[in-house]
Every structure is written in C-alpha cells, then in structure tokens.
Amino acid sequence: MHNNNNSQDANSPQWLWLTATLFSMVAFAANSIFCRLALRSGDIDPQSFTTTRLLSGALFLSLLLLLKPGSSKKPGGNWRGGFYLFVYAYLFSLAYIQLDAGVGALILFAAVQLTMFGWGWKNGEKLRARVLLGMLVAFSGLIVLLAPGGNAPGAISSFFMLAAGFAWGTYSVMGKRSVDAARDTTGNFLRSLPFVVAVTAVSLLQTPLVITPTGLLYAVASGVLASGAGYVVWYAVVKRLAAQTAATLQLSVPVLASAAGVMLLNEPLSLRMVVASLIVLGGIALALLGPKPIQAV
C-alpha cells in the first residue's frame, strides 16, 4: 500500500505539487494573520487561542479522515510529532502578543531554515553551494531585523518565536517519513491536545481565560483552514523536497505575512522590514536558481 502511494506521488504532475507548495505557504502566512488579529486586541488569550486552534484542527482532520475514501480511518502520527506541534503552536501564540505579523513570521521561518538545513546536513543531504549561499543571504535578513535599534522587536517575544521555529522545523522534517499525510497530521493534532490542555489548566490557576466570539472565530479559522488543511498539504509536499529546499521555500512566508499585515492589520511597514524582506527574497531566488527543487520520491 505504501509503495502504491509513493508511485502515485511520483507520477503526479509537477504543477500540482508546485500549486500545493504555494497553498502551504499561504496557509502558513494566514496563521500569522489570524493569530495577530485575535491577540492584538485581547479578544482571546494565548492559551485559549492555542487550545481552540489545535482542537478545531483535530476535529476537522478527524472528520476529513472519516470521509476520505479508500484509506484507513485510524489516525497515524506519533507522540513526538504531537509534542513538537504543541510547542510550536503554544510559543507561536505567546510571541504574537507583541510581534507584528511580518516580523514574527520572519523570525519563525529563519529558525525553521536553520533547523531543516541542520537536519539535512546531519542526514547526509548534499548541501549545494548555491543553496547554502542563498540560505546565508536569506538568514542575514534576520540579522538586519533583530539588530539593536528603535524598530527592533522585543527580546522575549523574539525568543519565543525562535523556539517555535525550531519546533516547527523539527515537525517539518518528521514529515519526510510520512506515508499518509492525512492520517499522520490527524494523529499529531490529536496527540497535541493533552499537552495544551495541561498548560491551559496550569494557566487557569494564575489568570482567568479570555474568550470572545471574535477571538474564537479567528482561532477556529486558524485551526481548520490555515493549520488543519495547510499542514496536511505540507506533509504531502515536504517528502518530495530536499530539506534545504523546503526550508528556503518557507522563507517566502514572512514576505506574504508582512504584506498582509500592512494591508489587513494596518501594521507599519518600516524601512528595516523592507530591507530584511528584500534580502530574504534575494536569498530564496539565489537558492532556487539551481537544480529543480521538486524531487519525486
């Protein structure tokens, strides 16, 4: 059964995989927007946002799995995947209390890039010189962003987002071993719930939860659309990509999130952010001008 799935993947048109990759990047950027919309006005607290996001995503994916024809209805994944998904989602929410959408996404995916490049190198993936140079150029955009100055983001929020990025990078490389994206993503979401419920219970002992209909709507949208659907597609795509290519592609997300933040959230577009985004885009272009990024399994 696994061999048949891999054979079908390999015979799929390349344009389909490129479209799926673009969908994943847009979904990742949408997560930043939904989270920032929910948290910036205090419509929901970070714990409630994370719980609602993961729970709604788990319910949506479980229903999707039940309705999916011709496959096992039993969730896949593992506890390690559930834990890293929880760490990413929880720290992501904490960071976005203060960070703007584009700034947070840039920090997040710079950390993702480092994690996935490190995994690829450790597992014997050949680091092409052009891709490595592109990664270094793109990562230098993060240095421009975080350098001390009037527009530099807060240190604690930046640390939370960096840690979230390392968790998401680890979760992504785990997807390279996935043989059924829908089952594995569903199982990982379900296994993330005990962790987030435990953290929320502890938080209740200190401060009351804040949940408004608006905040709940943003959290559900993040869980169902941007996370549930987006992550299934990403787990299907990432196994076809070299780790270094997958990492570099994700650096397009901060630019998408930044543009959406300016248009939808009225966030300021600082010169620092413009320069950092241009450097990142330049690094991506340099990295992807080499051999084809899509690698059939």
Low-confidence stretches are 1-10, 291-297
Tally the helices: what do you get?
Answer: 12
Structural class estimated from helices and strands:
mainly alpha
> What characterizes the major β-sheet?
none
Q: What do the pLDDT scores average to?
A: 82
- H/E element order: HHHHHHHHHHHH
In total, how many beta strands?
A: 0
| Helical proportion, percent range | over 70%
Characterize the structure shown:
- The structure is a single chain.
- With 297 residues, the protein is mainly α.
- It has one domain.
- Helices cover 75% and strands 0% of the residues.
- The protein is built from twelve helices and no strands.
- The two termini are 15 Å apart.
Label this structure with key terms.
single chain, 297 residues, mainly alpha, 75% helix, disordered N terminus
Write the SSE topology:
Layout: H1 2-11, H2 14-40, H3 46-67, H4 79-95, H5 101-122, H6 129-146, H7 155-174, H8 181-204, H9 213-238, H10 243-249, H11 253-265, H12 271-288
Helix pairs in contact: 2-5, 2-9, 2-11, 3-4, 3-8, 3-9, 4-7, 4-8, 5-6, 5-7, 5-10, 5-11, 6-12, 8-9
How would you briefly describe this protein structure?
This protein is mainly α and 297 residues long.
